[in-house]
Every structure is written in structure tokens, then in C-alpha cells.
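User: Hey, quick favor. My workstation is busy. Could you predict this chain's structure for me?
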Amino acid sequence: MSLYFSRGGKNLTLGMQDFLEAISTTLEKLPAVRKVLAVPPDHTRMDSQAGPIMHAALKVLGKKLTDVMPALGTHSAMNEEELTKMYGDFPRDLIRVHHYRTDVDTLGYVESDFVREVTEGYYDKPWPAQVNKMISQGDHDLILSIGQVVPHEVIGMANYTKNIFVGTGGSDGIDGSHYLSALYGMERVMGRCETPLRKILNRAADLFLTHRPVVYVLTVVESTPDQGPVVRGLYVGDDHSVFYTAGELAAQVNCFRIPEAPKKMVVWMDPSKYKKTWVANKAIYRTRMAIATGGKLVVIAPGVEKFGEHEDVDSLIRRYGYRTTPQVMDLVAKNPDLAANLSTAAHLIHGSTEERFEVEYCPGKLTREEIESVGYGYGESKTAIAEYRIDESQDGWNTSRSGERFYFIRNPGLGLWMDENHPHAF
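Assistant: No problem, here it is.
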């Protein structure tokens, strides 16, 4: 087990030549490869640069790259517009769709004693290690798991084993993983490599994945004001060191400490990526440790037209709303439909302000009545775009048209913002 390629630094700018070199170098160090499955992220992780990396893989591998299965998790399958945005003219006949409710095998269970220990008693059930059948039953001699290491609300730092066990996982595994982490506390995990769920997934990999030829291709990407997303690190390997090496750099370029807790934060959610609150609520996750108590977060999300990725999930969000952790736990105890969909219950906790600050949501097609019914305040997206000068505002402190001072974030998916005095800041 090895780290096959490692290139990264706070001031580096990596691109296609690095992607080609990383894949070529890795192949030289592996046994002969005949058939390859790639598992990249979907369009909601466009900043990962998985699109260009997939083109590099195709150039190096040619016909050996037989299958490409985006790690959808519970997300909807990508439509043609989203595929084009993410992957350009990549051959569509290679794309496979992951169905998290039907296409999975359970490899085994991480024992309840281990789960109880790492979650400090917040969760004490065995965790099912589930993967898509193409991974468990396929005859590929190389599985390239591609993605970005970046702060994440469920696991601390995204990707690595999460891309396999959640991105290609099943309902039971995804439900348990999200709920146990929500109970443990998202503010205790975000931006950290070593978290309860990370320990569980890594143990699952050690127990059940060692017989499969999985190699991880991990990027670290920084959002810059002049160039947009820039790749600062690229790491390829098949053991835990590849993740922790990438995570160390991600902590440097994706975690931001603010000396003054903003009373108003404004976040822009790219409409091409964020069409449901299920993913657009990254605006809340990644800023909640920065906002002053009693402050307001304005989420400008003109692409948002629904709550959930699927109709049943959308219905649950509408029925129960974004509530505090104790309230959601009580709802789970009393309502079988929510208890049967714990990833949605976790999402409700993650989207809650815990009654510490306000959220003004400025969506596309959702109405005032719909937004207010789930516990948020409502704002008009066009009005907010004009008031906060979205075309002109830069990341950091700005002044609105009416003269109000606010803190602006253009791409919350690429970071974690913290008041340096927050009890869980690091």
C-alpha cells in the first residue's frame, strides 16, 4: 500500500499536465491494468476538478477505462446539462448511474462497540459497509476513486473512503453515517480529518475493501478572487496516508478564521450547482461557526426550486422542517417515516440554526409560504442580488447599497469559516 503521487503547496497551481503525470506515474507502479472503473463526484462537486481529471484518465487509459460511475450517494442522476457542465464532451456511453436503494451489496458491519466508542456513546448500532455492486462484484482490476478533500459537515473533511461507502453506498449505510455524525455534533467535526465517521469508514475499508483494487485520486482546491478555484494539491494512493496528506493542506487553504463574528453574512449559491436546499444548505453548514449569536445569514440561491433530491425526501423536509437537534430527535422517536430515513433527519439537524441565528433564504421557485413553513425567513433573490451588489462584492467585508456592513462568501462549498472565538474553532 502506497502513496503513488504527491504534489501540493499553498502557492502551487496544478493543472492538466499534473493530472496526466499523476495517472501515468501511478499506472507505472501498479500491476498491469486491463479494465478500469472510475468513481468521480457529481456536478455538485464541480470545484473538485474531477472533470479535467476524467479527461486526463481517458487520455492515459484509453479503452481500458470501461466504466464511469459518479458517486451520487442520495443525489439524483445527472442530466445532460449537468453532465456537460461537469464533464464536457466526455463519452456518455461510459457513464453508469448509481441507485442507492437497489444497486448495493453489504460487505459487512463495523461492530457496535467500535461505533459506540468513537461516537462517545451518541450512537451504538453496528454500521453497514455498503457499496455499489460494480465495486463488490465487478471484474475491474483498478478502481479510481476521484474527488476533493474539503471541509464537510458530516465527516469533517470530505472524500477518500466516504466517496466509496457514501458516494456508492446504500440507504442503511448513508442513513446511519449521517445521523450518527449529526448527533455527535457537526461543529465538533467540520474541518477535521480525525472524526467519528472517518474512523468508522476507514475501519470498514480496512476490514472489507482490501481485496478490491481501489486507488484514490484526491485534490485540494482553493477559491481565489482572481482565478476562481485553483488546484493546490494532487495526491494519489491506496492507503490512509493519501487522505491525511491531502487533509493537512486542505486545513491550510480551506479553513478561515475571522477575528470579528459577522452580524450579517451573505452567501451566493451558484444556480448551476445548487437547485435544492439538500445541497444548497452548505451555505448554512460552512458559515454557522462564524455568524454572531443573534446575527443573520442571507442565502442567495436563485437556482433552488425544491427541498429534497427525491420526492419522498422533499415531502419529509416539508412535513417536519429544519428544527433543533433535540426537536429532531424527538420527531424521529415519534414518527416512523422520519425514523426510516435518518439521512433526512440528519439533514434537518444540519440545516437548523439551533435557534442561535436567523436565516433569510432567497430561492428561485420556492415561495414565501414554502420557505417559512420549514423554519426559515424568506427573501426575494433579485432584490438581494441588487442590495448586496453580488456582481461587485468580494469575499470578506463589503457594504450594501443601503450602507449596511456585511461579510460575503461567493463559494461556501470550498471552505469553512469560523469566528476565532467560537468554542470549536481550531
